[in-house]
Amino acid sequence: MKILTLKWDCFGYNHIRNAFKRAGFELCEVDFPRDKEDARNSEALAKIVVEAIQKNNADAVFSFNYFPVAAIAAAACRVKYISWTYDSPYIFLYSKTIEFPTNYAFVFDKSEYFNLRQKGVNTVYYMPMAANTDYFDSIEMTEYERKKYSADIALIGSMYTEKRHDLIRHFEGLDDYTAGYLEGIMDAQKQIYGTSILEKSMTPEIIKNIQKVCPMFESGDGIEDAAWVLSNYFVARKLTSLERSDMVKALSDKYRVALYTPEKTPDLPKADNRGTVEYYKDFPKAVKNAKINLNISLRSIVTGIPLRAFDIMGCGGFLLTNYQSDFNDYFISGEDYVYFESKEDLVEKAGYYLEHDEERISIANSGYRKVRENHNFDIRVKEIIKIAGMA
Fold first, then answer.
1. For the chain, which residues make up each domain, given as ranges?
2. Which of 50, 91, 159, 211 is the most buried (most CB within 10 A)?
């Protein structure tokens, strides 16, 4: 059986291709310029996929993240389209093409899975992410690199202060009542993990007031509504930006914090901003040489375990993360990783585990073993092809 994979600059592409090969599939691939074309509506992009399916006589298409044009192409060729989405929020999942019977759309956040199912989408499936521990184990480091990446605490990822993330800037001119209301729901959400109040708080009045200054409406070819878009793309990103800055500041006031991010961070003078790290070569080195690796989930990820968390544990790193309820299905806090419930709790637990080396290392080793044994790409591919009826 032959699978066509859509090649784009995504995390884990090489890992899953190798896992499909080990499962006995023949693979072919096509470059998928989803950053240059409209992956929701582009006829040209759909044509690229159709021609690749026909040329290679593929039985199925696979991509990391779901693309409506790929769903259209697969349906037209009457082959299965398997996708595994690790981004959040991800509006393409709410395209009406998601309902095509040829789709097998896997998502990592159980909350999003239930949300889509409640909307009547029966082509979506829950599938947590994975890590390639064999690859991470193969990473070699020089003594210079060990010193270069050494840190008490490391946070790898965006601070969501870049212009492309700061969508709430479009709310300029918002009336005082609505601005205060949004600040209030963000303050309330700061106190809550494991569920989201943002979308439910987007009342018709609030949406109407926002649309007066930011004329954002539904796309017309999707099942998303204004409340979902405003809460997940606008408010959740702003809240994440505020939380990450606030927490990094609190930590860097007391500890040696390395920040790997594309943004400038002048408001965090005590944090060591080291710029970005390349995912395949440098990310593992940064994780392996930090005593504590921090995960502060994007607030649109309600219950799911982010890919970054699996990668940290798969590298053998100690993971300190905000509470995400999907962890409870596979891991034990205090045994495989540790979660915090507030900024104050984060600072306290960071200090504790920096002072207790043996306990910290034991937890990191336990998390690594569970990821290696139960959450690798070979296991995930077996689950995916079973659900897709390709086993």
1. 2-130+377-387, 134-166+236-374
2. 159
Assign a CATH topology to domain 134-166+236-374.
Rossmann fold (3.40.50)
Q: Which residue has the tokens 């492309």?
A: 164
Q: How many helices (H) and strands (E) does the chain have?
A: 15, 12
The yes-or-no verdict on residue 194 having pLDDT over 90 is: no
Q: What is the pLDDT of residue 161?
A: 84
Query: How many other C-beta atoms lie within 10 A of the C-beta of residue 245?
Result: 18
pLDDT, tens digit, for every residue of 293-320?
999 999 999 999 999 999 999 999 999 9
**In sequence order, what DSSP letters do the residues of 83-127 get, joined into one string?**
EEE--SS-GGGGBGGGG-TTEEEEES-HHHHHHHHHTT--SEEE-
Give yes or no on whether 2-130+377-387 and 134-166+236-374 have one common fold. yes
Token duo for residue 282? 């440098």
Rounded to 5°, angle at Cα 283 from 282 and 285: 65
Q: Are 79 and 57 in contact (CB under 8 A)?
A: no
Query: 256: pLDDT confidence band, cut at 50, 70 and 90?
Result: very high
Classify domain 2-130+377-387 at the CATH topology level.
Rossmann fold (3.40.50)
